[in-house]
Amino acid sequence: MALTSLPNEILLAITSNLTDEPDLNALAQTNRRFYETLDEELYRLNVETGKSSSLLWASLHGHDASVRKLLRLKANVNACTNMRKTTLPEAISVENASIVTQNLKQEITENRARLIASPLVYAAAMNHTSIMRLLIDAGAEVHRRHGCHRNPIMAAADQGRVDALEMLLDAGADIEAHGANCNTPLSLAASKGHLPAVKTLLARGAAVNTIRRGRTALIRAALIGHSETVRALLDAGADVAPHDNNECTALMVAAQHGHYDTVRVLLDAGADPTAKDYTDRTAINWAMEGDHDDIVALLLDRTTPDLEAASSNGYTLLSWAVSAAAPRCATLLLDRGADLAAPQPPPLWIAVASGDRPFTKDGKTRAIATLKLLLAHGARADFVHAHESDPCPPVVAAVMRNRFPEAAVLLDVAGVDPNSASEKGITVLLAAINRDCASEVDAILAYGADPNQPRSSNGQTPLAAAVHTGNTAVVRLLLKHGATPRPADLRASLHGAALYGDSTMFDTGAGNILEIARLLIEHGADPTRDLPDGGGRLLLAVVSKGHADFLSTLLKGWSLPVNYSVHNDKTPLFVAVRQGNIEMARVLLAHGADPNHVKSGRPLLAWAKECNGDDGASLVQMLVEHGGRCDEVEGLGRVEQVIEAQETIYSGIAEMGL
């Protein structure tokens, strides 16, 4: 008999053995008869084994009938189920996004692993008042906070649900309740700009000046620029004076975020535009952070401050505008008579050397625009700022502080000398070299910087500085623009590879440093003159790193000590033999390398014999051909005779014309 033909009694008897909700749900969905027969059983199973999770789903989606059915089956009206263990994640899928408000959907999605809430919380958040009434009448707790630290009234305030708020307050909900973030319903509604909810809470007696997490409801509303909410709070007696944890007032946060209408409302309500935070900044200073010149103009009109008055750090209003990279605000102040020369440090110094650019997408653009504005108004760029450990001009300071775009403006627009230097002789070029930035070095050289200008305090040239940093690209650029190597430069380049230091010979950086040495030698450095051993260690390093072309260049151009050895008796030829490098061994032997050198009591032929395969045999033959004595090397006694016989045979073949 087919399953669909069974009587309902037998079908229910079968399903009574199904204890897993998904199994029963799958069976119920096979046809309409099964659904109508098993629907009640599915709800019962959820209540008994599923922690009444369906009540959460029904409360969220506004299914009154499902809520009634679940309550009739004694579902737990205060069920608090971890979202990970319910059907709720599926209920808030993209397909159902229209059912759930975006803020609530985002919160549930981001926190589903830890979010625990009751049916009343979700019904309140969705403003399902009919379901709320069912839940409250069934004993739902209106004060209860859950694992997510939200209670029903906080959920309603967060979503701006006026009807839900009214019902909860009528049921005895605490109007001053707060969650883990210490918001009250009023401050939470104000922070979201839910004006009707704010008015409802105020009308029901919410305390308007309660401070939570250092902020009042007024400060939170001012932060988002909801001027109507701000006005409602002010009408209810909100105090404009309190500061938040950063000592900022509502006026300051509104000015910082560019909320002009909110600033005007606060000023009309008596907010003090001269109040200061812990950094000595006023609302005007905060408005400059976003270059909100309209707000700065409004505040200036209300306060008429002394434009040349300095704050505790010596900054005038113009200095603050420049520091904030606020060109529109700086223009406003200059048009109103701000003095470019009065403050110390000068605004132009602040523009290129003090602080960082704003951390915004347009921060660099604003900084450059501010600097150009100062130059257009006649700001000098050729001064030396004395209040530095090494007094220097702005262009040098800009490069030192990683502000090369500003330095380029000074070189381009202001026409400052590209060879400007600090009192200790740090030039623009040296500053870029010390920062190890080849692109900046290239640009500064293009502006006409002298690649041979020495540093005044110790005589270090740009080339010497580049050699010291080991930047091959910078060395190449300097040589290209006419830098002249000095005797000390070649030794300095090799000192970094420990060739002329106190440690062992070849470190991991020797390859790059040898490239610098090669560049210096190609441009006039003389290894036999500039190196204390006539270039012996350089020769060892070149062979060790396998630079065959460089080796040929050195031996063809200079009489280097080809048999130079260090304290461990290593010669260039020994290194080539141990590496099995036939090409380098041939070059060295051709330039007089000793084939009979003894290392650790063993002649070179003995070391060559240990090389594997054909390379070893070729090296042995090459050494013998250049005078290597093999009579003391075991196994090599007849090598000379063999070579002589080979030569005789080859000679005979040649005479026969074969």
UniProtKB/TrEMBL annotation:
This protein's GO CC annotations: cytoplasm
PROSITE patterns: ANK_REP_REGION, ANK_REPEAT, FBOX
Superkingdom of the source species: Eukaryota
Pfam families: Ank_2, F-box-like
Record carries keyword Secreted: no
InterPro entries, per the entry: Ankyrin-KH/SAM_domain, Ankyrin_rpt, Ankyrin_rpt-contain_sf, F-box-like_dom_sf, F-box_dom
UniProt entry keywords in alphabetical sequence: ANK repeat, Repeat
Extent of the ANK repeats: 118-147, 148-180, 181-213, 213-245, 246-278, 458-490, 568-600
Domain F-box, chain residue ranges per copy: 1-60
Name this polypeptide is given: Ankyrin repeat-containing domain protein
Biological source species: Aspergillus taichungensis
